[in-house]
TrEMBL record:
<feature type="binding site">
    <location>
        <begin position="21"/>
        <end position="28"/>
    </location>
    <ligand>
        <name>ATP</name>
    </ligand>
</feature>
<dbReference type="InterPro" id="IPR027417">
    <property type="entry name" value="P-loop_NTPase"/>
</dbReference>
<dbReference type="InterPro" id="IPR008144">
    <property type="entry name" value="Guanylate_kin-like_dom"/>
</dbReference>
<dbReference type="InterPro" id="IPR017665">
    <property type="entry name" value="Guanylate_kinase"/>
</dbReference>
<dbReference type="GO" id="GO:0005524">
    <property type="term" value="F:ATP binding"/>
</dbReference>
<keyword id="KW-0547">Nucleotide-binding</keyword>
<dbReference type="Pfam" id="PF00625">
    <property type="entry name" value="Guanylate_kin"/>
</dbReference>
<keyword id="KW-0963">Cytoplasm</keyword>
<keyword id="KW-0418">Kinase</keyword>
<comment type="similarity">
    <text>Belongs to the guanylate kinase family.</text>
</comment>
<comment type="function">
    <text>Essential for recycling GMP and indirectly, cGMP.</text>
</comment>
<dbReference type="InterPro" id="IPR020590">
    <property type="entry name" value="Guanylate_kinase_CS"/>
</dbReference>
<keyword id="KW-0808">Transferase</keyword>
<dbReference type="InterPro" id="IPR008145">
    <property type="entry name" value="GK/Ca_channel_bsu"/>
</dbReference>
<keyword id="KW-0067">ATP-binding</keyword>
<dbReference type="GO" id="GO:0005829">
    <property type="term" value="C:cytosol"/>
</dbReference>
<dbReference type="GO" id="GO:0004385">
    <property type="term" value="F:GMP kinase activity"/>
</dbReference>
Length: 218
C-alpha cells in the first residue's frame, strides 16, 4: 500500500497583484474572473470621488466618497497610493492590506500606472505588476462602446489617453495581450500561481526544510 501523506499548505506571505491596462482593454473582466475562481485573492477596494456607474455597489466595487473626505484621507496618510485619473481621485486604503499580507492574504489591485509606481516604491518585494494590452486600438474603441457605461464624450477622452497609458508598459513585470478572454485569464492565473511559489514568499519553508533535513532516513 502506498503511504499518502497530506501536507497542510505552508505558511506564505501574501502578495500585491496589480492589474493595469488602458481603460477598456479588459482588466476588470480579468479581475472579476480571478476573484470568482481563486479563493485566495481579495480585491483591494479603492476609494474614489467618481460617481458610481449603474450596477456598481458602494463598498464592493469602490468606496464612493467626496473630495473633502478624499483630501482628509491623504492628509491623514491613510492611503498607500493615490492618483487623479480622468478628473477624479482614486486611492488605496492602507488598513486592509497591511494586516492581510502577513496572514498570507493576496490582494488584487485594479489601479493605473501612477498608483503602480507608488505601490512598487513602498512595497517592492510584495508587488507583482501585470499590464494588459488590447489587440488593437480599433478593438479597444469597440470594447469601450460595447461596455455601454460611458457617453461618447467620455469614451473619446479614454481613447485619447489610451496611447499615453500604453507607453507605461515597461513599468510592469508581465505584459499580456487580451485578444481572447479565456486565454488571457489563463495566462494571468499562471503568473499569480508562479509568483506564489517564490521562495521568499513561502515563509513556512525554513521549518519545513529543517524538519526534512533532521528527520531520520526511512
Ligand atoms: P477595463 O476594466 O480595462 O476598462 P473591461 O473589463 O470593462 O475593461 O472591458 C471592456 C469591455 O470589453 C467589456 O464590455 C468587456 O466585456 C469586453 N471585453 C473584455 N475582454 C474582451 C475580449 N478579450 N474580447 C472581447 N471583449 C472583451
Ligand atoms: P474606472 O473609473 O474605469 O473604474 O477606473 C479608471 C482608472 O482608475 C483605471 O485605470 C483604474 O485602474 C484606475 N484606478 C482605480 N482605482 C485606483 C486606485 O485606487 N489608485 C489608482 N492609482 N488608480 C486607480
Amino acid at each position: 500500500m502506498v503511504d499518502t501523506v497530506i501536507q497542510a499548505p505552508l505558511a506564505r506571505r501574501g502578495l500585491l497583484f496589480i492589474l493595469s491596462s488602458p481603460s477598456g482593454a479588459g482588466k476588470s473582466t480579468i479581475a472579476r474572473m480571478l476573484l470568482e475562481q481563486d479563493g485566495h485573492i481579495a480585491l483591494s477596494v479603492s476609494v474614489t470621488t467618481r460617481p458610481p456607474r449603474p450596477g456598481e455597489v458602494d463598498g464592493q466595487h469602490y468606496h464612493f466618497i467626496d473630495e473633502s473626505e478624499f483630501h482628509r484621507l491623504v492628509e491623514e496618510n491613510a492611503l498607500l497610493e493615490w492618483a487623479k485619473v480622468f478628473g477624479h481621485y482614486y486611492g488605496t486604503p492602507k488598513a486592509q492590506v497591511k494586516q492581510g499580507l502577513r496572514e498570507g492574504q493576496d490582494f488584487l489591485f485594479d489601479i493605473d500606472w501612477q498608483g503602480t509606481q507608488q505601490l512598487y516604491q513602498r512595497a517592492e518585494g510584495d508587488v507583482v505588476r501585470v499590464f494588459i494590452l488590447p489587440p488593437s486600438l480599433e478593438e479597444l474603441h469597440r470594447r469601450l462602446r460595447s461596455r455601454n457605461t460611458d457617453s461618447e464624450e467620455v469614451i473619446a477622452g479614454r481613447m485619447a489617453r489610451a496611447q499615453d497609458e500604453i507607453s507605461h508598459w515597461d513599468g510592469y513585470d508581465f505584459v499580456v495581450i487580451n485578444d481572447n478572454v479565456d486565454n488571457c485569464f489563463e495566462k494571468v492565473r499562471q503568473i499569480l500561481n508562479s509568483e506564489r511559489m517564490r521562495r521568499a514568499r513561502q515563509t513556512g519553508l525554513i521549518d519545513y526544510v529543517r524538519d526534512l533535513m533532521n528527520a531520520p532516513a526511512p
